[in-house]
Specification:
The chain has three helices and nine strands; from the N terminus they run E-H-E-H-E-H-E-E-E-E-E-E. With 161 residues, the protein is an alpha/beta fold.
Length: 161
C-alpha cells in the first residue's frame, strides 16, 4: 500500500537551510512574497541549473505551477507552516516525492497527536510528552507519526494522583 508524502513536525523534508541539490536538472522555488529576499538568495546559488520561481498569494494558485514542471525538478518551499502543508499536499497529489522537495518553515512548526480514545487529532506543544485530549483522556505521545491519522499516536494512560 502506498502512502503519499505528508509534511509533519519531524519530516525529513524540513530543513533549516535550503541548499541546491546537484542531482536534479531543474529547480522550482515556491515562496510567500514576504520571503522574496531568501528566495532570491537561493536562486543565485544555483549557478548553471535552470530555476523557475513562483510567488504565491493563495495556496490554491500553486497546483498549476507544480503540474507544469518537468520530471527531474527539485522543489524548494519557503513560507509559514499552514501554507506549506497545503502546498506540500498539492505537490504530493501531483506526483512529487519526498526526495524531490526541501521545505524551510519560517516561524513555528505544528505538532499533532492522534487520540486513540476519541479518534481525533489535536495540536500539542512540541515538547510535550504527555497531554490531555479534549475528550478528557490523558495521552502519552508516542514516537510514531501516522500518515493516515495525521498525528503522532497518543496512547491513553491513567495518571497517578
Amino acid at each position: 500500500m502506498y502512502n503519499s508524502p505528508v509534511l509533519f513536525y519531524e519530516s525529513e523534508t524540513i530543513t533549516d537551510q535550503l541548499t541546491p541539490n546537484a542531482h536534479f536538472v531543474k529547480a522550482a522555488i515556491i515562496y510567500d512574497e514576504a520571503f522574496a529576499t531568501d528566495a532570491e538568495t537561493l536562486k543565485q546559488s544555483f549557478y548553471d541549473t535552470p530555476v523557475d520561481t513562483f510567488t504565491y498569494k493563495e495556496t490554491t494558485d500553486v497546483r498549476e505551477f507544480i503540474a507544469a514542471q518537468k520530471m527531474g525538478t527539485c522543489f524548494y518551499l519557503l513560507g509559514k507552516w499552514d501554507e506549506l502543508v497545503e502546498i506540500f499536499t498539492t505537490a504530493a497529489e501531483e506526483g512529487v516525492s519526498e526526495a524531490e522537495i526541501q521545505v524551510k518553515i519560517v516561524g513555528a512548526k505544528r505538532k499533532y497527536v492522534y487520540c486513540m480514545k476519541c479518534f481525533t487529532p489535536s495540536e500539542i506543544n512540541p515538547a510535550a510528552e504527555n497531554v490531555q485530549c479534549a475528550c478528557g483522556a490523558h495521552l502519552n505521545v508516542g514516537p510514531f507519526y501516522s500518515k493516515v491519522r495525521k498525528g503522532y499516536i497518543g496512547y491513553p494512560f491513567v495518571p497517578e494522583n
